[in-house]
Amino acid sequence: MKKNKSKKNIFFVLLSPFKYFCLGCFYTLYGILYPFIIIYNIITSSIYKVYANNKNKKEKKEVIKAVNLEMDTIDDKIKKNNEIKEAQTLNKAELKKKKKEETLKQKKLNEKKLKERDILISEISKQDNVRTEYPNTYKYTAKDSDGHDTVGYIVAYTKQEVFNFLESEGYTVYKLENNKFIELFYGQKQFVKRKLKIKDLIFWLTQLSTYLKSGIPLTDSMRILGMQMGKKDPYKKRLFDAIVYQLIMGESFSEALNKQGNAFPSLLVNMIRAAEATGELEETLDDMANYYNEIEATRKQMISALTYPTAVFIFSIAVVTFILLYVVPQFQGIYESAGVELNGLTLFVLGASDFLKGNIMYIILGLVIIVMIIYYLYINVKAVKYSLQKFAMHLPLFGKIIIYNEMTIFTKTFASLLKNNVFITDSIEILSRITKNEIYKEIMFNTINNIAVGEKISTSFKDNWAIPEVAYYMIVTGESTGELSEMMAKVSVYYQEEHRNIINSLKSLIEPIMIIFLAVVVGGVVLSVIIPMFSLYGQIS
């Protein structure tokens, strides 16, 4: 223990000089650095004061700037509000001004209309209410019961009739006009004559029958149909207004329809005339709706049967023309430069290509002129029309389609006429006006002559190439049993079914025929171009 204490004392004795040395160095260094520390403290405190002052100034500036911005926004808002108020005030003033102008304008317009109305009334009162020999077409300007201005056209004999009619219908009439232009575009002899389409006719017949069965009077039913069908087509509105006018003026329904020119088929007019005599108008309207439905179905079958072959034929002509005009000439230059010996088929195709290329415009123009001449002769020359129809009716397959279609329409119409107690002579005359085929018109003419001399109807149908034997014998049976109308109806059903079957057969037959036609024509042209290529290949080898 003593040894350890003595060792510690020796260690501290040896360490004490170093301790004092370190302390001396520290105090010496501190004495040297103390003035610098004081200077640093003074500088830093002054810098901090400057920084603090600058920061306070900056914050004050930002506060002042924010306050100024708020003041500016408040001023802007006040200005904008003032501008809006001024604009609203101006808009109100402008609106008031516009309303005043519109009111004045409307007032002047109303005054002008009233003046025109007064002039019209004084003009009508001065005129003698003398009916003209032929009706005129009047353009009227009026206000309807709902207060809407309307312009329309009506056919009448005097202005007074038109005025009284429109006033009774709730219109306030301001103006009535009649001149050559109105007659040309809207009169009964108008430049472009229109007929009701079959689908419109079917809708009209069906709806009219429904309205009459529900107890609505005929005139009111026609008014309703005029509003329904005339919304999108002014012609229909004008047409039904004219019928309503005729009914109010005391004309019969059939006569009102008859006075509308070609708008309604003569068959329908005569059927309604017969129905008025028998008191079966609703039933007749239903029968005619069914009749036109079947006729429309037959017409669509005809169109569908002819559409496909016509389209394929036109397409094949276009393909062949393209090949001859643009493809063949490319090979012609190759053959000439190579000196290839050409066969007859190739020479023919190359010649056709040269001719077509040099005369394409003349060919098209010539075809158009020929078609126009044929069409004009077909429409205006009875002999040409007769010959062309006879030729078409003797064509294989297509001829039967035409004959079956004509027989269906003829027998169906004849059955409807006989069912509605129309006289046979009148029925035959109506049938001759309905058909557009001159062969059947000739048969109708012969039938009327046979009836006039006391012969039977079937006499003119006997041994006639345009009347199938089945139809002839069924007509004979109907005459002998006294049930001609029922037998005619059966004939129409039979030939309608035959017409449908032959059209379906034509559809299935025409496709392979057209494919063969395309293969022969197009394939022949292609072969005529390819065959010389083998000779050229042999020369090169």
How would you portray this structure in words?
The structure is a single chain. The longest helix has 125 residues, at 2-126. Helix content is 79%, strand content 4%. The termini are far apart. The chain is mainly alpha-helical and 541 residues long. The chain is built from 16 helices and 3 strands. Helix 4 packs antiparallel against helix 9. It has a 3-stranded antiparallel beta sheet, sandwiched between helices. It has 3 domains: 51-126; 136-289, Receptor-associated Protein (Up-down Bundle), CATH 1.20.81.30; 297-527, Up-down Bundle (Receptor-associated Protein).
Which properties best describe this structure?
541 residues, mainly alpha, Receptor-associated Protein, 3 domains, 3-stranded antiparallel beta sheet, 3 strands, flat, disordered N terminus
CATH level 1 name of the largest domain: Mainly Alpha
Radius of gyration based on Cα positions: 51 Å
Count of domain modules: 3
Number of helices: 16
Query: Which fold does the CATH topology of the largest domain refer to?
Result: Receptor-associated Protein
User: Would you identify the CATH architecture of the largest domain?
Assistant: Up-down Bundle
What order do the strands of the largest sheet run in, or round the barrel if closed? 2-1-3
What fraction of residues sit in β-strands? under 5%
Q: Runs with pLDDT <50, length 5+? A: 1-5
Principal-axis shape equals: flat
Q: What class would the helix/strand composition place it in? A: mainly alpha
Superfamily (CATH H level) name of the largest domain = Type II secretion system (T2SS), domain F
Helix content: over 70%
* Largest beta-sheet characterization: 3 strands, antiparallel
**N-to-C SSE series?**
HEEHEHHHHHHHHHHHHHH
Tell how many strands the DSSP assignment holds.
3
Q: State the end-to-end distance.
A: 131 Å
What integer is the average pLDDT?
A: 76
